[in-house]
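[audit] Reproducing an earlier prediction to check determinism. Same input, same settings, fresh worker. If the tokens differ from the archived copy the diff job will pick it up downstream; this log only records the rerun itself.
[audit] input (323 residues):
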Amino acid sequence: MIAAWRAACVLAAMAAAGTGAGQEGDGMTWGRELPILAQVDVGGPARALVLRDGAAWVCADYYGLVALDVSDPRAPVVLGRCDTFQAFDVALMGDYAFVADRYGGVQVIAVSDPARPTLVTSYDAIEFATDVEVAGDMLLVPCRSHGTEVVDISDPTAPEHLGTVRLEHFGWQIAEALLQGRYVVVGNGFGVRVIDLEAKGGPALAYAHDTRGALGFSTNGVALISDLLVATGHRRLRTFDLSDPAHLRPLSDARVGLAPVRLTLGRGVEGPTRAWAACPTSGGVVVADVHADGHIEVVREIETPGHASRVAPAGDRVLVGDG
């Protein structure tokens, strides 16, 4: 048994978390616990992970960026590793991984060969980097007290600072997709912040929506389905209409027993979009279906052996960074 603090990645059956339109079950019965297919010891806590082409890229804290072959979900294999200072988060663009390396800034790593990930260059963030997100040819780096750094990565080997957008509070999560092709949406604890990447004079804060005071909802995790915003707060999931970035219109609200934070959206073929929320403080995953009209339906709350930090759906399976 792998010790919980070592943050094995957990592979589990995904679709059977609950069947909804466009979701096919695999015959497994889900309870409060996660049906584990395999665990992988990556050396340290699995802080974050992303999937691409059968490989999982895992941030393993002081053990750097780890590449896993997950093509066989019951027998994942460590392919390679690139040492960093303290890998906390990762985002991919082309053949490069951008790793939030805490006090090491952002590390740019060539990942075309998963067996030999290679450090290319580093970017010295204003403050310690624990999150990163790619938006087009820009890299977004939330800073605890300075807001969010915007970095030009059109040439990944030479990142260039474009500006820093102050958010009044640090960002918990940056939505992976852009809103209307130009806006970055950030959940920052106080509410929702909208950054305009095309503002005159450079990226700037365009709108600040307070959900904590107005709705009693501290927005943490955020994800976009076109103009529909899905958000997590303390023991709650909510959806909002953000078709007009200047106005945040509440649509649906669902309460849960766990404490969801980081959101990941599945890629459903038809019907509702499946949302996965990692719950690191309470240890588990919340699974919900988001319908086209914004209605959110909780499918299941699942306990994990450790502290679920990230979730990455992969076909009919899901990979959990359980550190």
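[audit] rerun output stored. Observation attached for the diff report: Helices lie at 212-215.
[audit] end
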